[in-house]
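Late entry, written up from scratch paper. The run itself happened at the end of the previous shift, but nothing got recorded in the book at the time, so transcribing now.
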Amino acid sequence: MELIKSVSGIRGIYNKSLFIEDIISHAAAFSQIQEAKSLPILIARDSRISGFEITERLKQELNKIGRNVIDCGIIPTPTAQFITQNFDIAGSIVITASHNPKEWNGMKFIDCDGTFIDKNKNAKLFKTALIKNDFKINQNSNITSSSFIESIDLHLENVLNIDFLNVDKIKNKKFKIVLDTINGAACTGFKKLLKKLNCEIIHINSTPNGLFKRDPEPKTSNLNELVKIVKKNSANLALITDPDGDRLALIDEKGKIVIEENTLVLCIKEYLEKTNDTNPIITNLSTTSAVDEVAMQYNTKVIRTSVGEINVVNGMKKHNSVIGGEGNGGVILKNSHLGRDAFVASAIILNHLATNDLLMSEAIGNIPKFYMLKEKIEINPEIDAQLISQKIKNTFIDYSFNEIDGIKAINKDSWIHIRQSNTEPIIRVYIESKKEENLSIIFNKVNSIFNDNK
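Output as recorded:
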């Protein structure tokens, strides 16, 4: 297996496809391409066991080439983004493999404004890491590494001061919440946040030790054990995050798992209801059409981007958008910072329940109902993307098409989004429809196209 490189950084299985030499070369390249040479680089990590070793080595190597380092230890990726945005920092490196299994690790690269580096800067980083193997040693004895233990508290203070939240109403509800932080980076901060909101917490997977007791990705198929815990404790809801704390999944008071897509839908509904903002909502091509229907109710339009957090963020910057995100449970609110944030998403959802006196199931019942299927299909790695695109068009003749990221076919009742993987010989297929029975029918059509072209 090869090291995976993408707009989200690099990741791989530590000491199998991701080696310390990869980490050092990419960290040094990142330091080189960041313009503010006199400012420190922030290092943060999720709770994976390999993260400590990697962080200690990175501090040494960055100091050697003349960079001061701020070590924030185990904190969520959105906390690192928030701190980078609000302090004089050249950029940040988060040691994380996000939702991948515990054997994995990786690096996310944050620019000086707190957003991930974009596609062009990523390309420059990867090129520099390959060709620049001998970075100059700096003899300055004043170069140091320091810690920053206040980062989570500063982040939470910001979240609790989001202007449209009614913190007192949330506190008065005394929500009983099952919290699953998967022994990841959000353990400490999420518990602090809910305590500040006067919630009763049943906290599982609560120690940031990197021992993930379920599949780390907070998608529906991985949350069945939590359903039992919600029912047993008669909780109002469950809040579930991934190892680096940028995505949020939900379970309602009846023990019904809420699809990831609806985390964003609920947050958008609450934001528009409280603010009457008419600036566009920005999301990617693979996110549910429920976003469009909710936006329409508030006379707001939706603009779609390519998949990837930085693509959504760049769209938000371009169109002066305040809220956006992705259908994987990732909510972005400019009022806090331009990055996906499970703390922000949970505060908005609790505000929605408290100020509207709703149960979680009632809140979900008030948003448009869609059914979604996410699958992948193995393909011939030599397959021509243009040919596939043409066959999709020939098969789905009554649909319109968007080709800014793969191909998306759209009609009034359903859509299909097909993206070719950059790292595996597969295509990812996303299908949504107002009728559940349409999902398998559409998928079988897509599958036949690709099987015919293997």
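The two ends are 22 Å apart (CA to CA).
(Scratch paper discarded after transcription.)
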